[in-house]
C-alpha cells in the first residue's frame, strides 16, 4: 500500500509539471539599453537609445516573442516613466540590424525643469521593455530687451514707429521681430495685427510701418521678438491717429445751376474728367450727380466742424444721385445745414456743408437754381 501511495504522488507531480510545461508562455520583452542624453536646450532635448536583442528567445521553451513592432522614448517629470503615465515619442516600428541605435528630438518642454527619460520597445508577443532611466534639466533663457519708440510719418491710415534692441540680446537666437498693435486690445500680442520687421538681429534700431489704421481711433502697440524660449514684448505705446492735413482747407463757394465742380480744388471746371459732380443739370431734377467715380453720402444736419475724418471714411459712399428737390420737401435730401461726406475722383476724402439752398429754376430764362456750400478736402 505504501508503494501505491508513493507511485500516485510521483504521478501527480509529473502531471502538474507537464501541465506547466505546456501552459502558455509569458511574452518575452526585447532588450533595450539605457538612454543617452546628447543635447539639452531650453525647451527640449536630443536623446539616443539602442535595441540590443530584437527577437529574444524564451529560455524555457525556446519560443521567440516575435519581431519588434514599436520603439522610442518615454519621458515625464516623475522618475521611471511608463507609457501609461508618461509622454511617448515613437521613433519607429521595425529595426534592420542588431544592435539597433536610434535617436529622437523631444520638444515642447518647460524651461528649467527636471525630466526623466528612458527607451521602450514593444514586440509581437505583447512584451514591453524599458531601459534604464536618465535625467536632465532643461536650460534657462534670458529674453532679449526690446523697446518701442515714438510715432512718426502719420498718414490717414498708417504710422511709423521705432524699435530698439538693447545691448543684451539674450541667450537665444531671435527668429523674428516687429510690432503688434490693436484698437481693442490694450495689451496687444502677435495674434493681433502685426508687422514683421526682420527675421534675425544683432541689435540696433529699426522702423515698422503700421497699416490699416483709422483716424480718431486710439491704438495700443508693442514691439515683440520671437525666439526659441518664447516671445518677449516691450512696454505698451498708446497713440491716436489725428486728423490728416487738408489738401483743400475749408472753402465756401456757390455751385451754379447746371455746372460741374472739382472738389479737390473747390472750383467750377470745364475740363472733362476732372469734375466730381454736376449740380442741377439742364432739363433735370435738382440734386448732386456724381461724376468720374466720385462718391457721396448724406450724413445729416450736423455741425460741420465737429464732423471728423473718421466719420467721413466710415460713411457708406455711393455714386447714387442725391435729390436736392426745391418743390418736394420730403424728397429733398439737401436742406440747409446738411453735411455730405465724399471721396473725389482723385481718391481724397472730404466733407461738404449746405450753407444755403437756392431758388427753384422754373424755365431756361429764369434765375435761381444755385446752392451755396462749404467744403474741406483732406490729403490722401
Automatic annotation (TrEMBL):
InterPro entries: FN3_sf, Ig-like_fold. Gene3D superfamilies: Immunoglobulins (2.60.40.10). Keywords: Signal. The lineage of its organism: Bacteria, Pseudomonadati, Bacteroidota, Cytophagia, Cytophagales. Residues 1-18 form the signal peptide. This is Fibronectin type-III domain-containing protein. It comes from the Bacteria.
Amino acid at each position: 500500500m505504501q508503494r501505491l501511495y508513493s507511485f500516485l504522488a510521483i504521478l501527480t507531480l509529473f502531471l502538474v509539471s507537464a501541465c506547466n510545461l505546456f501552459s502558455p508562455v509569458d511574452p518575452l520583452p526585447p532588450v533595450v539599453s539605457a538612454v543617452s542624453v546628447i543635447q539639452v536646450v531650453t525647451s527640449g532635448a536630443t536623446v539616443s537609445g539602442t535595441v540590443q536583442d530584437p527577437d529574444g528567445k524564451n529560455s524555457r521553451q525556446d519560443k521567440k516573442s516575435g519581431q519588434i513592432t514599436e520603439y522610442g522614448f518615454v519621458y515625464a517629470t516623475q522618475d521611471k516613466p511608463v507609457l501609461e503615465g508618461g509622454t511617448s515619442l515613437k521613433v519607429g516600428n521595425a529595426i534592420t540590424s542588431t544592435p539597433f541605435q536610434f535617436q529622437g528630438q523631444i520638444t515642447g518642454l518647460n524651461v528649467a525643469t527636471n525630466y526623466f527619460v528612458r527607451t521602450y520597445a514593444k514586440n509581437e508577443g505583447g512584451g514591453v521593455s524599458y531601459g534604464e532611466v536618465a535625467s536632465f534639466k532643461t536650460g534657462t533663457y534670458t529674453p532679449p530687451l526690446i523697446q518701442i519708440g515714438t510715432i512718426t510719418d502719420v498718414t490717414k491710415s498708417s504710422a511709423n514707429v521705432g524699435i530698439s534692441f538693447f545691448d543684451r540680446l539674450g541667450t537665444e537666437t531671435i527668429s523674428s521681430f516687429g510690432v503688434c498693435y490693436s484698437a481693442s486690445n490694450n495689451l496687444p500680442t502677435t495674434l493681433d495685427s502685426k508687422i514683421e520687421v526682420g527675421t534675425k538681429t544683432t541689435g540696433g534700431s529699426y522702423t515698422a510701418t503700421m497699416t490699416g489704421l483709422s483716424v480718431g481711433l486710439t491704438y495700443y502697440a508693442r514691439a515683440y521678438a520671437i525666439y526659441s524660449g518664447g516671445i518677449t514684448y516691450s512696454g505698451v505705446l498708446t497713440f491716436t491717429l489725428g486728423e490728416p492735413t487738408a489738401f483743400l482747407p475749408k472753402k465756401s463757394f456757390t455751385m451754379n445751376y447746371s455746372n460741374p465742380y472739382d472738389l479737390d480744388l473747390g472750383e467750377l471746371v470745364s475740363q472733362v474728367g476732372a469734375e466730381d459732380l454736376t449740380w442741377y443739370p439742364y432739363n433735370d431734377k435738382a440734386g448732386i450727380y456724381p461724376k468720374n467715380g466720385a462718391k457721396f453720402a448724406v450724413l445729416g444736419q450736423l455741425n460741420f466742424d465737429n464732423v471728423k475724418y473718421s466719420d467721413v471714411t466710415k460713411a457708406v459712399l455711393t455714386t447714387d444721385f442725391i435729390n436736392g428737390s426745391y418743390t418736394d420737401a420730403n424728397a429733398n435730401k439737401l436742406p440747409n445745414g446738411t453735411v455730405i461726406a465724399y471721396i473725389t475722383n482723385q481718391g481724397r476724402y472730404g466733407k461738404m456743408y449746405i450753407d444755403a439752398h437756392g431758388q427753384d429754376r422754373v424755365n431756361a430764362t429764369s434765375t435761381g437754381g444755385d446752392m451755396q456750400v462749404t467744403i474741406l478736402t483732406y490729403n490722401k
